[in-house]
TrEMBL record:
<keyword id="KW-1003">Cell membrane</keyword>
<dbReference type="InterPro" id="IPR017853">
    <property type="entry name" value="GH"/>
</dbReference>
<dbReference type="GO" id="GO:0098552">
    <property type="term" value="C:side of membrane"/>
</dbReference>
<dbReference type="InterPro" id="IPR012946">
    <property type="entry name" value="X8"/>
</dbReference>
<keyword id="KW-0336">GPI-anchor</keyword>
<dbReference type="InterPro" id="IPR000490">
    <property type="entry name" value="Glyco_hydro_17"/>
</dbReference>
<dbReference type="GO" id="GO:0005975">
    <property type="term" value="P:carbohydrate metabolic process"/>
</dbReference>
<keyword id="KW-0472">Membrane</keyword>
<feature type="signal peptide">
    <location>
        <begin position="1"/>
        <end position="38"/>
    </location>
</feature>
<dbReference type="Pfam" id="PF07983">
    <property type="entry name" value="X8"/>
</dbReference>
<dbReference type="Pfam" id="PF00332">
    <property type="entry name" value="Glyco_hydro_17"/>
</dbReference>
<dbReference type="InterPro" id="IPR044965">
    <property type="entry name" value="Glyco_hydro_17_plant"/>
</dbReference>
<keyword id="KW-0449">Lipoprotein</keyword>
<dbReference type="GO" id="GO:0004553">
    <property type="term" value="F:hydrolase activity, hydrolyzing O-glycosyl compounds"/>
</dbReference>
<keyword id="KW-0732">Signal</keyword>
<feature type="domain" description="X8">
    <location>
        <begin position="395"/>
        <end position="479"/>
    </location>
</feature>
<keyword id="KW-0378">Hydrolase</keyword>
Amino acid sequence: MCCSVRSSPLQGRMALTRPFVLVLSTALPLLFFSPADAGEVGVSYGRLGNNLPSTASVVKLLKQSGITTVRLYDANSTVLKALANTGITVMVMLPNDHLAAAAADPSSARRWVRQNVAAHYPATRIHGVAVGNEVFEEASNLTRQLVPAMANVHAALVRLGLDEAVKVSTPIAFTALQESWPPSAGRFRDDIAKPVMKPMLDFLERTRSYLTINAYPFFAYVEQPDKISLDYALGNSKAGVRDPVTGLVYHSLLDAQLDATYFAMEKLGSSASARQGNSLGGPDASAYISESGWSSGGRRRPGRRLEKAGYGAGAPAATIANAKAYNNYLINRVLSGDTGTPYRPDADMDVYIFALFNENEKGCGADDIEQHFGLFYPNQTKVYEFDFRGGALPSWCVANASAGQARLQAALDYACGHGADCSDIQPRAPCFEPNTVVAHASHAFNSYYQRSGRDKAACDFAGAAYVVHHAPKIGKCVLPWQVLD
Ligand SMILES: *[C@@H]1O[C@H](CO)[C@@H](O)[C@H](O)[C@H]1NC(C)=O
Ligand SMILES: *[C@@H]1O[C@H](CO)[C@@H](O)[C@H](O)[C@H]1NC(C)=O
Ligand SMILES: *[C@@H]1O[C@H](CO)[C@@H](O)[C@H](O)[C@H]1NC(C)=O
Ligand SMILES: *[C@@H]1O[C@H](CO)[C@@H](O)[C@H](O)[C@H]1NC(C)=O
């Protein structure tokens, strides 16, 4: 039974049988310069293990590691309480076994939202509810209940005034796509396209939410190592693969999976509305990956198809080196703000890496490959090196608009008086426009920070500033990044 979920026939040339959630957001107008919108990378905190640390230790580990967003597979109140007042954002889940009730009965959905969201918010920064998980794969008899359940959960959030803060989505398996190669051929399975995906996309657009999809280049590679190069699966193919229809070249299988999803959405008429409300210059759509990752070990799964495909001995996909390469690629991609895809160059990409820990109760039997997706061993040692703070990436310092005019002005004066180069923001200088305190403060703070050798402490200004890892553009000026000796 445990294996059956993952052994559905390969659909489409690059379909994946694994859960990775990637969220395609529909439209987030950028009302003002807001570097925090470029995407976030967090982890899926799966708990299918009998040797995992206490929730209190886990929260400490998240904070130590600079992990600022997590996805849960339930809404366990012990976990949600432990995450209170940490600033960590959380996507909770209404499990598949609650779905039928939530769809049939609005008051059941309201009860669930009161107990599992409202009771913890805002102390615990819940920002999303996943309604079910991979329903088409794992609870296919509930497929028709999915969108009604999402709508009832959303309606419950509306009644509590939480619908702006907490978005409703549902992580779908990548097998929801019938075709995924070339990306331009991407389309949803016929049995779900019109009856389920179309109303779901309408719902997501109406509620300003996003599509979430579980996308695993790992499983695509494992199933077709003869057709897919390892570099491409790891996100780093020099040559790339060309979509013969669009001519777009893909250097990363994950990008191809994302674009296949965008094309599938478009075929259901989603692109027009995805671009609406976007007249302020924001990206067409954003992509959040609610699950993606790479196994670092374990034995192959039983089954002829997978054996033939070279799970384990012949072509060992699941190695520490590969898992390290892929997950660092994901982390750095999001932190650097380089989140667009060939077809949607302006798209955001939020990612939950699967998973926080190696979980010894996943998969089928001892040492299954599914038990090795963790970034950490259960004893809290890292399986390999990674850095959610972007220590090795270029960085910039920008003003936090929420700090308010007075604090920003004081910090701006301080920076300009203590070594920041503020000549560019004087009247008639190239970066004077926009002539606002927050814009000028970003220039001054960044200059101060760069000249201090990008010491994190030099980007604080009593909480009025913070570090970003993608070059901020303010008016016509891109903030400089200086390589210092
Ligand atoms: C929630 O998690 C805690 C800590 O792991 C566990 O002891 C408890 O049984 C869980 N509660 C439910 C309802 O699953
Ligand atoms: C769906 O199927 C599961 C078992 O596969 C069963 O437990 C559940 O009751 C079914 N739900 C509905 C609404 O039919
Ligand atoms: C943690 O567990 C891993 C895997 O079992 C082991 O290799 C490592 O040495 C352990 N670390 C500590 C500090 O015990
Ligand atoms: C910006 O400032 C507000 C208010 O002080 C604070 O809540 C928020 O966390 C800050 N944002 C960042 C990214 O530091």
